[in-house]
Amino acid sequence: MKFTEVMRKAVGLLLILIENSLLAQNIFQVNENLGKGVNMGNMFEAPSEGEWDNPFRDDSFQRIADLGFDHVRIPIRWDVEARVDLEAP
User: Do residue 24 and residue 62 come from a single domain?
Assistant: First the structure.
C-alpha cells in the first residue's frame, strides 16, 4: 500500500473518531432539546390496527400534547399480512 493511501485511510479514520466523539458529547444536549417524549407502542405494531386494543384516534396527538409531551415515537411493524399486500395508491 502506498504512503498516500495509508495517510488517506488514517485521516478518514481520525475524522470518524472525531465525529463520533463530538456526537457522544452532544447526545445529552440532543436529548434535552427533544424534551419529554412518549412511545405510541401497540398502535401500529399489531397484526391489524386496533387488534391490541390501542387504536389510533383522531385526537391522539392532541391528547398527548395536552399531557405535556413534546414529541412521540411511532413504531410501525410493516411485515404484518395486512400491510405487506398493500399497494401504493
Answer: no
